[in-house]
Amino acid sequence: MRLQSFSSFVVVAALAGTSAGCGEYVQDQGRSPSQVVIQSLEGARGNTPEEFGTPLVSDVETVVTTPEPCSSTTPCRTVFGDVGQVTMSLILKDPGAPGVTSSPSTLNAVTFNRYRVEYRRPDNRNVPGVDVPFPIDSATTFTVPGASTVTAGFELVRNAAKREAPLRGLVGGGQQLSMIADVTFYGRDQAGNDVTARGSIGVEFGDFLP
Predict the structure, then answer these.
(1) Contact between 71 and 65 (Cβ < 8 Å)
(2) What is the DSSP letter of 12?
(3) Does this model's pTM top 0.85?
């Protein structure tokens, strides 16, 4: 009797992190053997850029007492854009065979050089410049190596968006708008293969001044 051996192939799908907005992180599959996992995606107000968290509570206007002519007796109302922070790590799509684990090499490192932020609302009213802010297309450069995690910053909400519809309409009105910001990072591994990673974060817009 002839014995036949069968090899089983396991496809591993990796989802990492949580977000108060929708909690979804997606890695688009491509030709690269590398897979970048978003460990966390957070936001911070522009006037307190070190205080990251989820969801982002975004103030459409902020009271400041400095610099002059602003003071505690004559405060000024101004606008700050909001910043985002992403933490990524790298794994290989092929985990290797039992007892022979695959490890990323320098060739597997992924360099990201641009990103896009798109906004959407739970009520599906998503016309840019009417229901949600216009998307952001911008550049950022950082590399995710195989041996460690990397944290990088980016612009999550432009200050110009707070002077335009629909955010401008929140000033002094006591209303809030709940949105989800979908952030997509575009890059390549060191062999030139395209790699895309996408995450989402909840954003609460409002005029939170006293």
Answers:
(1) yes
(2) P
(3) no
Q: CA–CA separation, 175 vs 182, rounded Å? A: 23
Contact between 204 and 43 under an 8 Å Cβ cutoff? The reply is no
Cβ neighbours for 81, distance < 8 A, ≥ 6 positions apart:
46, 155, 156, 157, 158, 159, 160, 161, 162
Q: What are phi and psi of 67, to 5 degrees?
A: -80, 180
C-beta separation of 159 from 205 below 8 A: no
Q: Give me the DSSP letters along 31-73.
A: S-SEEEEEEEEEEE-TTSTT--BSSEEEESSEEE--STT--SS
Specify whether the CB–CB gap between 112 and 185 falls below 8 A. Answer: yes
pLDDT tens over the chain, length 210 residues? 443 433 333 333 333 333 334 444 455 556 889 899 999 999 999 999 999 999 999 999 998 989 999 999 999 999 999 999 999 999 998 876 676 667 788 999 999 999 999 999 999 999 999 999 999 999 999 999 988 999 999 999 999 999 999 999 999 888 999 999 999 999 999 999 999 999 999 999 999 865
